[in-house]
Amino acid sequence: MNIPKSRNITWSHSDIKRSDREQRNGHKGAILWFTGLSGSGKSTLAKRVEKALFARGCQVYVLDGDNIRFGLNRDLGFSPEDRTENIRRIGEVAKLMMDAGMITLTAFISPYRRDRDANRELVPEGDFLEIFCKCDLAECERRDPKGLYKKARAGEIPQFTGISAPYEEPLNPELVVATDEHSPDECVQLVLDELVRRGIVPAEVAAPRD
Amino acid sequence: MNIPKSRNITWSHSDIKRSDREQRNGHKGAILWFTGLSGSGKSTLAKRVEKALFARGCQVYVLDGDNIRFGLNRDLGFSPEDRTENIRRIGEVAKLMMDAGMITLTAFISPYRRDRDANRELVPEGDFLEIFCKCDLAECERRDPKGLYKKARAGEIPQFTGISAPYEEPLNPELVVATDEHSPDECVQLVLDELVRRGIVPAEVAAPRD
Fold it and tell me: Where does B28-200 sit in CATH, by number?
């Protein structure tokens, strides 16, 4: 499993280390892996956290299903195998961006526990924060921001997570954000507080602002 | 060709624009696509440029064949199809990192002209700089830093670029760096000067230093 297909390659380290980048940026790199049902607010929350961190001077970037699927993973569909490969590649990209010093937020349904766990294994302990955007299916379906549940119920979208494909809830996520219980601002603050608690960003970064 | 396999996806823009990131970083994002034979000095030059730009305060990162092939592209070998997919994915990752505000350097043989051109097409005009590391095959083979030419001549590595697989030289690269004619420091300066000339970094960034 851990042997690349290619032979005759060697790992070469850059002269610039991740720690050099982190020192300059004033915060650590990390992967914030948002997971949850369609409509649970992953992408919205990730973008609000990005905005808050950027406003506070952090190097931060969001990878999300929509922009990744138009580019890197345009060759992949929604079969179980393709979903797994989708999540694998995103984990690798997030790892590279973290190595580049960024707080990298990913907002994908990522329904399979083993796929999320595999990405957690890619990076050192503590660098991967699984953030479960917890929201009742009924509420997700009520929100239905993209009209996808309606289509799925009508049988127009096969393998739709929560309807005709499984979602495996995280067993030990670093953070649970109940997006149907908190306001958007509260959800952002929960994430920022967790980043401070873990020493990823300094405390002043997470202080509430107008 | 331009239709992703997935349906029911929409492109969503982040609130934080690339221009916001560039303004903060004090330089533009860009892709510096180093191409050339094995042993032509791509990776060495890219890392020296990275070091120089980092020392001058830039957000900069090197993607190279060695670290990509242990991660994102570990499922790919060296067949023509796999080489093309290898380069396609790297182009997409470089685009994401550029969008995150970084000067992204890629150091891959990338032997096929159409693969490099496809990556150029991914991004707006002027954002993709093809940098041809020009070096005679005989000199690359003399250097043979990883002992690969020796193995290739012995028939131990199939499809080795320059020996048993083609290398298509760039027709209109943004920059040619003859690594067999200039010192390493001169090569770095050529790249820095080009970045200034194109307005990617401010002039003071490229000023020679001790």
Answer: 3.40.50.300
